[in-house]
């Protein structure tokens, strides 16, 4: 399937995004850089709103967040899911009304809970009995009746990588339905005058490309909602994306919603898509530094994309600055970091005349890449450049070595 952002054009062999050429983008903003196709991001967010006009779409900010994206979400009418004080700070900086923010996390600190309640956060998704006590105390002290959802683990296997499956019985997240903990959590929240039981929440995992597990979780959650009298269900995020042209097309938001609705009649639904909005909107642009045998080294690597190393994620890449009619040969695209596992793409056919100075573009680089990027080997993190209607602007600036040195007293 076509995995490039919607405004992608190949003119004279050169990648253009949002009407701007990759060569110009590399000259002006440097490489590596994440190039975000604003129209693509907005269209994907809109598709979720269209699929759930009578519910709430909370964008999963962990996939990728910055103040400018918060402004787009606000403008479009999405809400926002944050899971740390840091993400909450970005939501605030971007001007998201606090009432449209939902706060997740299995270990929110008392200080984070206080900040959230003081800010007027729309909803806190409670994840442990300790947290229910903490939040009730903070809300009581601040004289607030805080809306909460209860995170439930419905005991389903989403058939995704083990590190990103969250809906099974053995999970650090939520209250188990099967073990009766979810029932006890409902009773505990109901007994706290400073808490309002607003809804039930489940999130079964991420990069899920089959609909069965979503349907099963929805059915279990709907049954539990009926037994507790709760009328709102937030069924989380998790819809997967295609990373390579050989991956099957994932279900659309409308297809997922059809499955969820079938199981949850009469309930108000919310969803929390992250990857399916941000992932395909963005292309990572690298410059080739060396070509040695089968190894093509680029100027980024595992610090800007830890996903191949962490989850065995497969990506593709394409020559982005020129046309080449040279025969293809299989290469391994590697980064500049100090370990052999620093591989971005394995066994990729690329033109055999690939040379230093060429640009390589890696599509589907918008989710869990900049947000998970680190500074291994003191490599500064790349910028995010939004492209639209023939112009480009920085929405996350490139880190500099000075930024890194500023950390040292
Ligand atoms: C509670 C919660 N909601 C939403 C998301 C977003 O998930 P995804 O990016 O897979 O749509 C996550 C991450 O998996 C999550 O933990
Ligand atoms: N970081 C994971 C997704 C985690 C989902 C967050 N709850 C990935 O890159 O696939």
Automatic annotation (TrEMBL):
Reported EC number(s) for this entry are 4.1.1.20
Orn/DAP/Arg decarboxylase 2 C-terminal domain location, by residue?
283-366
**Which Pfam family name is an example for this entry?**
Orn_Arg_deC_N
Record-linked PROSITE patterns = ODR_DC_2_2 (PS00879)
User: Sorted alphabetically, which InterPro entries does this protein's record hold?
Assistant: Ala_racemase/Decarboxylase_C, DAP_deCOOHase_LysA, De-COase2_C, De-COase2_CS, De-COase2_N, Orn/DAP/Arg_de-COase, PLP-binding_barrel
Keyword Ribosomal protein included in the entry's annotation: no
Residue positions annotated to bind pyridoxal 5'-phosphate are 238, 272-275, 368
What's its top-level EC category? lyase
Positions of modified residues (N6-(pyridoxal phosphate)lysine): 62
Question: Which cofactors are reported in the record for this sequence?
Answer: pyridoxal 5'-phosphate
Ranges for domain Orn/DAP/Arg decarboxylase 2 N-terminal come to: 39-278
Q: Which reaction does it catalyse?
A: meso-2,6-diaminopimelate + H(+) = L-lysine + CO2
UniProt keywords (A-Z) are: Amino-acid biosynthesis, Decarboxylase, Lyase, Lysine biosynthesis, Pyridoxal phosphate
Binding positions (substrate): 275, 307, 311, 339, 368
Task: Report the pathway entry.
Answer: Amino-acid biosynthesis; L-lysine biosynthesis via DAP pathway; L-lysine from DL-2,6-diaminopimelate: step 1/1
Q: Does the keyword Lyase apply?
A: yes
Give the function comment from the record. Answer: Specifically catalyzes the decarboxylation of meso-diaminopimelate (meso-DAP) to L-lysine.
Task: List, alphabetically, the PANTHER family matched.
Answer: DIAMINOPIMELATE DECARBOXYLASE, GROUP IV DECARBOXYLASE
Q: Which family does it belong to?
A: Belongs to the Orn/Lys/Arg decarboxylase class-II family. LysA subfamily.
User: Subunit composition?
Assistant: Homodimer.
Q: What is this protein called?
A: Diaminopimelate decarboxylase
Q: Native species of this protein?
A: Nonomuraea recticatena
Gene that encodes it: lysA_2
């Amino acid at each position: 399937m076509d995995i490039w952002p919607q405004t992608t054009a190949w003119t004279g062999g050169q990648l253009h995004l949002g009407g701007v050429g990759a060569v110009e983008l590399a000259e002006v903003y440097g490489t590596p850089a994440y190039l975000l196709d604003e129209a693509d991001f907005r269209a994907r967010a809109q598709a979720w709103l269209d699929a759930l006009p009578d519910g709430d779409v909370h964008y999963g900010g962990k996939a990728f967040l910055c103040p400018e994206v918060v402004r787009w979400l606000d403008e479009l009418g999405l809400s926002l899911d944050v899971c740390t004080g840091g993400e909450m700070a970005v939501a605030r900086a971007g001007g998201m009304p606090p009432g449209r923010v939902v706060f997740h996390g299995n270990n929110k600190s008392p200080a984070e809970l206080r900040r959230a309640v003081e800010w007027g956060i729309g909803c806190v998704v409670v994840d442990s009995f300790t947290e229910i006590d903490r939040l009730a105390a903070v809300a009581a002290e601040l004289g607030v009746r805080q809306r909460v959802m209860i995170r439930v683990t419905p005991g389903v296997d989403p058939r995704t990588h083990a590190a990103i499956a969250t809906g099974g019985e053995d999970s650090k997240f939520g209250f188990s339905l099967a073990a009766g903990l979810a029932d006890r959590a409902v009773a505990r929240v109901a007994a706290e005058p400073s808490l309002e039981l607003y809804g039930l929440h489940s999130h079964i995992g991420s990069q899920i490309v089959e609909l069965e597990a979503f349907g099963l979780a929805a059915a279990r959650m709907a049954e539990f909602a009926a037994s507790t009298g709760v009328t709102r269900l937030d069924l989380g995020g998790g819809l997967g994306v295609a990373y390579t042209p050989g991956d099957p097309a994932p279900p659309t938001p409308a297809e997922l919603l059809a499955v969820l609705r079938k199981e949850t009649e009469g309930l108000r639904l919310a969803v929390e898509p992250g990857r399916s909005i941000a992932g395909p909107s963005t292309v990572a642009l690298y410059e080739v530094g060396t070509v040695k045998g089968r190894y093509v080294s680029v100027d980024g690597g595992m610090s800007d994309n830890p996903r191949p190393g962490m989850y065995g994620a497969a990506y593709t890449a394409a020559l982005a600055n020129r046309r080449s009619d040279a025969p293809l040969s299989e290469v391994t695209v590697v980064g500049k970091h100090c370990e052999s596992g620093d591989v971005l793409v394995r066994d990729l056919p690329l033109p055999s005349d690939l040379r230093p100075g060429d640009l390589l573009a890696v599509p589907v680089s918008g989710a869990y890449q900049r947000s998970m990027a680190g500074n291994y080997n003191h490599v500064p993190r790349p910028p995010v450049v939004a492209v639209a209607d023939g112009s480009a602007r920085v929405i996350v600036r490139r880190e500099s070595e000075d930024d890194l040195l500023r950390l040292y007293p």
